[in-house]
User: Which sequence fits this backbone?
């Protein structure tokens, strides 16, 4: 994959590695960021949606397809979000049936979403759709490599604003409090006169919307095309990342940057001629996730910040 | 499954005699009829789905039947595909007895196949039977160890086993790519990086008189053994108690950690054996073909069989049949190859939705005793 960061690293020699990792961190982190913010909201309402991997792939396919058919990449992003919300509603709908387990439904929706995206996405593998524009933040630099590395996508900037906004909204707004109440104690929310089912439906739909948008970033910006190997576990990694981030949107942001940087290591090292262990470096985000979960989880105490209604940590 | 376990424990009481047999039949009928209903619902939904793509659903299902079960040739294809599914389904079904949701069978399959290949390459020139036995042993140990990681992390560190087992799939595939394109690569494999071939002498052949490889026999034997383990041994009984209520199990002095490691190891060993068979009976060498999704389909088989090791066999044959008919419906009706995945996804959703009906249909409700 030839991207500007790789070119920069080639010209700058060894100094290119940290630059390429930083630039890659911003690029690679965006899908992680959106999926984890969405999952964070869903989990704060007391439900886990493991199906976001499928939602991500559906979003990538729908975004690319709509961008190709309408000629507008932003309409593609919107379509990806909407299809994500539909998948969120499906998850919430199945979960509201009695005796149905949210983890199993997530696995089923993951397989269904991936299969459906491959089925419907077949015609979009060949054609080239318009992709998202980038914002040039490197105008001050003379080095073309730095300028390339600082071309940033608007979706990332939206995410930068979204994360602290969610922290604030969860803490200080009415719906934020209702959402957290449903996540801490369904009975308490019920006693206040709110429908837990409805709160979780909305939270799962918003979560699906964000995951869909994250998917559209994959197909419409970086790597910027649609094929069946587009996502390799970013969705499920992002779900694990929420646990690491202690259900705090701002920590989700920093964790996404960290994971993006880990994902950019392989290509960055390859660009300075180190190709040994290329595939192992590609697995860095998964290994990192696993290590972080090993370090932060504990069999005895509940995780700090964990919503009490969450089945995954019960 | 917990309700089932509790019921099974209650039914185990011999004093209730004939009444208990009647109850067993009733709950048995429930766990056959409801998945069948789910399958029918899925068939209707998928029929509507393909009708939207201007494909006649009746023609589709007639073709699928022909491609899966219509001829001896298609039966052989179906059974060959069912073999790895039986084994990978056990990877989900065995830990499920303890209430764990393991979805990393694909990882154990890949690691098992890779380890078996490495073993065969290291033992070149020895008697084929020795090589094959060593391949199976190492493949099972590697696959078992791989899933035992997820079990151990769950028990000793409280790491969610569903997420960790899926992360381990991606790590396993990365290790496969790393070795196949690096240390273990056969320089002659240009377009599709692969390891050296294990050689025709060390391949396990077909069941006499058929084109079905021995994996099917291994799968059936493993499923029967797993059934005996779960339902007719103390270890299996202990596992089901721990799956129903961890606290009760601890009060009884059961070592839950050991049970978790054992069940995860056995499940992973089954998937690892499937990987070994894929190498020794089909591929002959390790390459990216190993990660073809048998592990992922195994999850669906396990859930559809309600984690009953014996029920895994017919369900695997059914899903193997759906897979076997994929080529035919692609060629004849022009449907994308992902149609099979869509159908599997719909079946999975319907099966889970049917869980809502357990204990709610009057016909199957236990009589007040």
Assistant:
């Amino acid at each position: 994959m030839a991207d500007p960061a790789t070119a920069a690293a080639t010209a700058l020699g060894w100094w290119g590695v940290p630059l390429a990792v930083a630039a890659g961190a911003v690029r690679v982190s965006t899908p992680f960021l959106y999926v984890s913010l969405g999952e964070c909201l869903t989990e704060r309402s007391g439900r886990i949606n493991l199906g976001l991997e499928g939602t991500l792939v559906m979003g990538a396919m729908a975004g690319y397809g709509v961008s190709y058919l309408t000629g507008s990449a932003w309409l593609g992003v919107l379509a990806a979000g909407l299809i994500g919300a539909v998948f969120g509603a499906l998850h919430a709908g199945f979960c509201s049936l009695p005796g149905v387990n949210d983890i199993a439904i997530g696995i089923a929706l993951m397989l269904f979403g991936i299969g459906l995206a491959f089925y419907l996405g077949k015609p979009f593998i060949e054609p080239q759709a318009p992709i998202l524009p980038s914002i040039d933040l490197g105008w001050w630099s003379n080095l073309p490599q730095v300028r390339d590395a600082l071309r940033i996508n608007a979706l990332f900037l939206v995410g930068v604003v979204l994360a602290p906004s969610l922290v604030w909204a969860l803490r200080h707004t009415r719906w934020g409090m209702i959402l957290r109440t449903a996540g801490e104690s369904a009975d308490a929310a019920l006693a206040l006169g709110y429908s837990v089912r409805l709160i979780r439906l909305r939270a799962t739909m918003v979560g699906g919307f964000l995951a869909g948008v994250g998917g559209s970033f994959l197909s419409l910006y970086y790597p910027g095309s649609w094929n069946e190997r587009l996502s390799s576990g970013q969705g499920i990694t992002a779900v694990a990342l929420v646990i690491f981030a202690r259900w705090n949107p701002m920590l989700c942001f920093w964790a996404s940057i960290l994971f993006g940087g880990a994902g950019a290591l392989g290509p960055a090292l390859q660009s300075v001629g180190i190709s040994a262990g290329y595939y192992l470096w590609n697995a860095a985000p998964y290994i990192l996730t696993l290590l972080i979960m090993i370090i932060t989880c504990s069999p005895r105490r509940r995780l700090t910040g964990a919503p009490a209604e969450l089945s995954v940590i019960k | 499954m917990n309700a089932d376990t509790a019921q099974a424990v209650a039914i185990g009481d011999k004093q209730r005699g004939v009444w208990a047999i009647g109850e067993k039949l009733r709950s048995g009928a429930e766990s056959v009829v409801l998945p069948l209903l789910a399958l029918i619902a899925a068939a209707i939904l998928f029929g509507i789905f393909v009708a939207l793509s201007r494909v006649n659903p009746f023609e589709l299902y007639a073709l699928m039947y022909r491609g899966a079960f219509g001829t001896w040739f298609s039966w052989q294809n179906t059974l060959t595909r069912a073999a790895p599914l039986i084994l990978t389904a056990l990877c989900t079904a065995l830990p499920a007895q303890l209430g764990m949701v393991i979805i990393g069978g694909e990882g154990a399959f890949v690691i098992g196949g890779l380890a078996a290949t490495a073993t065969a390459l290291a033992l070149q020139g020895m008697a084929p039977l020795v090589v094959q036995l060593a391949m199976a042993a190492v493949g099972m140990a590697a696959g078992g160890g791989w899933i035992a990681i997820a079990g151990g992390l769950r028990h000793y560190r409280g790491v969610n086993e569903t997420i960790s087992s899926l992360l381990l799939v991606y790590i396993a595939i990365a290790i496969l790519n790393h070795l196949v394109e690096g240390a273990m690569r056969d320089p002659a494999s240009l377009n599709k990086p692969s390891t050296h071939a294990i050689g025709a002498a060390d391949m396990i052949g077909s069941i006499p008189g058929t084109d079905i490889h021995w994996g099917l026999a291994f799968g059936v034997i493993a499923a029967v053994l797993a059934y005996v383990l779960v339902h007719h041994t103390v270890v299996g009984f202990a596992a089901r108690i721990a799956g129903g209520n961890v606290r009760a199990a601890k009060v009884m002095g059961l070592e839950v950690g050991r049970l978790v490691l054992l069940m995860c190891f056995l499940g992973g060993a089954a998937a690892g054996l499937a990987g070994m068979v894929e190498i020794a009976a089909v591929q002959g060498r390790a390459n990216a073909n190993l990660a073809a999704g048998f592990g992922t389909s195994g999850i669906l088989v396990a859930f559809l069989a309600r984690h009953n090791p014996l029920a895994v066999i017919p369900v695997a044959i059914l899903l193997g049949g759906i897979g076997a008919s994929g080529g035919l419906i692609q060629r004849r009706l022009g449907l994308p190859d992902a149609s099979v995945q869509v159908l599997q996804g719909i079946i999975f959703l319907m099966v889970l939705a049917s869980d809502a009906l357990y204990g709610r249909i009057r016909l199957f409700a236990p009589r007040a005793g």
Remarks:
- Chain A has a mean pLDDT of 88.
- The beta strands of chain A are 134-136, 151-153.
- The two ends of chain A are 42 Å apart (CA to CA).
- Chain A touches chain B through 48 residues (CB under 8 Å).
